[in-house]
Amino acid sequence: MSDQDDKPRIPPGQVVTKKFPVMTAGTPKITCAEKWTLTLDGKVENPLELSWKEFQQLPTEDFEVDIHCVTKWSKLDTKWRGVSLDTLIDLVKPLPEARYVSAVSDGEYSANLRLPDLTGGRAFVATHFDGAPLTVYHGGPARLVVPGLYFWKSAKWLRKLTFSEYDYKGFWEKLGYHNYGDPWKEQRYRG
Description:
Sulfite Oxidase, Chain A, domain 2, 11 strands
């Protein structure tokens, strides 16, 4: 049990692992850090594209979070460093109608998210895991991390965040995964 609110740390149906399993659909061609960019566009006042060097100049934070995979593993107390989505959102200033975000990655992978799940310290773009630069196997050079949702929503090899008034289904959602993915409600698959 958590000391903070007596809520259990392990969602229903999950098993704790000490390992960090590598789960990937396909083998995309990954962009190296020197050529990496992050585009933030769509329903925003200030669309922008950040180079790796520009992204590295943004303020970073350390995050310690539990992560939960739809394949039923949970890893507790994971340690990351990255840029809070709040920082990126402040830069681009989403328009009032922007309620959703599509996270797009190398390899044509995408994940759909609700904007409120990315604000208030709930999500970040990670560049480091466990004190070291994020490896390509775990989404390096940068990946999205949204610990409140199943880990497929935490898109590896992140390249773009598109803000929208519409909820466009992501890669796994189109294949039958749940549209939202709350691990506490076991929202693994549609229906």
